[in-house]
Write a structure and sequence with these properties.
Elements lengths: L2 H41 L16 H10 L12 H8 L3 H12 L17 H10 L2 H5 L11 H12 L6 H7 L4 H13 L5
Helix pairs in contact: 1-4, 2-4, 5-9, 7-9
Length: 196
């Protein structure tokens, strides 16, 4: 292959690289705009007092699965987060993907999390978490519970226990727990500072 042939191969390759880079920037920009306009009020520092979870830094595939679960054909209908059902219904696949890319790139340590707003004993919460092997899954899973808002954890655990939220593993994990146990688990996990 001569020098001229190398240039002919290189020029189309460069144009593909440049256009894919530009498309990626547009996806991130779309995700950022959607996040700023729709998500940050509940999931950012503005939502400090709400029971909504911190979503910054979650894995892309988890965010995509949860947004799809909030759609009308999905599995999540939620009394507290009913606004998510209405909002997710209007999202197309590209918007969901762009939100997931943007949110997964955020640093969860930039969101202020109230550490201990639930009653309970931290040591009992730690003991329960070890008995139930919570971190066996959550260290590997898409949803990080360490340092999450206590009010959200309390709400989520209650939702799994009362059947409002469906997940076979989580339903088994909370089976038989007293309300005080759930509060202590929420307190323990929210007290873990992963941002040191």
């Amino acid at each position: 292959i001569g020098v001229g042939m190398n240039k002919l191969i290189l020029i189309p390759l460069l144009s593909v690289l440049v256009s894919s880079s530009y498309a990626f920037d547009n996806i991130i920009e779309l995700g950022e705009q959607l996040y700023i306009n729709q998500c940050v009020l509940c999931h950012g520092n503005e939502g400090f007092d709400l029971s909504s979870p911190v979503i910054a830094g979650l894995k892309e595939d988890y965010i995509i699965s949860q947004l799809n679960a909030f759609k009308p054909e999905g599995t999540r209908t939620d009394e507290l987060m009913f606004v998510m059902n209405d909002w997710a219904a209007g999202l197309n696949d590209q918007e969901i993907e762009s939100l997931a890319k943007y949110i997964s790139g955020l640093n969860s340590c930039d969101v202020i999390v109230p550490r201990s707003i639930t009653a309970g004993n931290l040591l009992n919460g730690k003991r329960l978490s070890e008995e139930r092997a919570c971190l066996e899954c959550h260290l590997k899973s898409n949803f990080k519970i360490q340092g999450q808002k206590g009010s959200y954890l309390l709400y989520a655990l209650d939702s799994f226990q009362n059947g409002q939220r469906k997940n076979v593993v989580m339903e088994a994990a909370v089976e038989g727990l007293a309300q005080s146990d759930i509060a202590e688990l929420a307190k323990y996990f929210s007290s873990i500072n992963t941002c040191q």
